[in-house]
Amino acid sequence: MALISSILQHAKSHSSSKISTYIQRRLFSNDVRKENIVIVGAGIAGLASALSLQRFGIRSLVLEQAESLRTEGSSITLSKNGWKALDAIGVGDELRSQFLDLQGVVIKSDDGKELNSFGFKDEDKSQEVRVVERRVLLETLASKLPPNAISFSSKLSNIETSENGTNTLLQLQDGTRLSAEVVIACDGVWSPTAKWMGFRQPKYAGHIAFRGLGYFPEGQPYEPKVNYTYGRGLRTAFVPASKTKVYWFVLCNSSSPGPRITDPSILRQQAKELVRDWPVADMLNLINLTPDDTLTRNPLYDRWLWPVISPPPFSGRTVLAGDAWHPMTPNMGQGACCALEDSIVLTEKLAEAMKSKHISVEDAFKAYGSERWKRVFPLTVMANRIGALLQSENTLICSVRNNLLVPKLKPRALTKHTNYEFEQAKRDGH
Ligand SMILES: Cc1cc2nc3c(=O)[nH]c(=O)nc-3n(C[C@H](O)[C@H](O)[C@H](O)COP(=O)(O)OP(=O)(O)OC[C@H]3O[C@@H](n4cnc5c(N)ncnc54)[C@H](O)[C@@H]3O)c2cc1C
């Protein structure tokens, strides 16, 4: 109250530019908690960044809007590049022990005919593909951070740079104010930080994903393979995740994202409706065996980071990582893998800058932006285009896809983008 009345008092007797300077000064001086590094969002990118900074002895504070970790929801596929990042931050083996090493893929058309099948390691033994429960991934990352490293119920509501550009003021919904030397914004696809930096909102891709995790208490019956079925405007997959759980998804087309639906009985009914006449009977069974809390429905969005038009992923000492910067459709299973890669590259460069007198934080962010843009922009575009082909409703396109393209697919086509080498590792010669 005292702050507001003092600002109002000041407003009566000064010009508007002086008033704004005065407000900034007051905001940055009183009742503001000072922090060194603040990470916004305790999702995959946020937790991996905090853990990666910890490797360099750098402490950070993670702000998460939710009351606890987002443990609901289904699973994601992590490929070789994701595992490499998880190894770098020391949690790869703990996760590997819980999830199956998938051997390959079988692709069928919606008349039940097998179009192609191959092993992921047929051409390259180093390939690694596993489905990981999001809950387990987040809990594992969080468990390696010190107590109180994550501040829950801390929703970022406003962000501004200090007058001299060295600090960032973060205003939380509950009124808390923090002044941070560095902000790593991992606040997801609808990132308020990206909006503040001038990024346009993500674009709806025209498809909706229903997902779940079928549970077989006595053990699931499938081989460790990805089972895709491609139809017209509809595609499904089921993939064993562990000894008792099988991940599945149904992807359909829709002209609009529609209302947000979280009621599991509606989600189950809608997913079942989509595959009622599907040749793969396993899909209906899996949907029936799926616990309520793993059923989700997500309209798919992405944002293409056009050169010149798109802003850089940083402003002053605030930087974006993961979906906050480059939301991509999941058609190549790369969103989380790239979020993990971001965390490693960004934190390595930041740690170097913090220890060096010659590299500034801004230099580190610039180097991160240019190294990562080359990686994430093509993947975002490719994922979108693959989605358009796989969700096509055109009879001719579906026929060419199923009879000419898919039968010729080689393992390399599904895995070569996962052979990512961190530039730092290349420079260090390993
Ligand atoms: C259907 C579907 C399937 C997918 N499958 C795969 C796959 O197989 N493989 C793969 O690699 N990727 C996959 N992805 C992508 C993957 O889920 C995302 O890329 C990944 O979750 C991004 O992580 P993130 O940390 O950037 O964002 P998120 O995981 O969204 O985390 C953002 C966090 O920020 C918090 N937050 C947001 N706003 C605020 C605020 N104002 N204040 C404080 N906290 C805030 C949120 O609560 C959340 O915890 C898939 C995505 C979808 C939709």
Automatic annotation (TrEMBL):
<keyword id="KW-0560">Oxidoreductase</keyword>
<dbReference type="InterPro" id="IPR036188">
    <property type="entry name" value="FAD/NAD-bd_sf"/>
</dbReference>
<dbReference type="GO" id="GO:0004497">
    <property type="term" value="F:monooxygenase activity"/>
</dbReference>
<dbReference type="InterPro" id="IPR044560">
    <property type="entry name" value="MOase"/>
</dbReference>
<comment type="similarity">
    <text>Belongs to the 3-hydroxybenzoate 6-hydroxylase family.</text>
</comment>
<dbReference type="GO" id="GO:0071949">
    <property type="term" value="F:FAD binding"/>
</dbReference>
<dbReference type="Pfam" id="PF01494">
    <property type="entry name" value="FAD_binding_3"/>
</dbReference>
<feature type="domain" description="FAD-binding">
    <location>
        <begin position="37"/>
        <end position="374"/>
    </location>
</feature>
<dbReference type="InterPro" id="IPR002938">
    <property type="entry name" value="FAD-bd"/>
</dbReference>
<protein>
    <submittedName>
        <fullName>Monoxygenase</fullName>
    </submittedName>
</protein>
<keyword id="KW-0503">Monooxygenase</keyword>
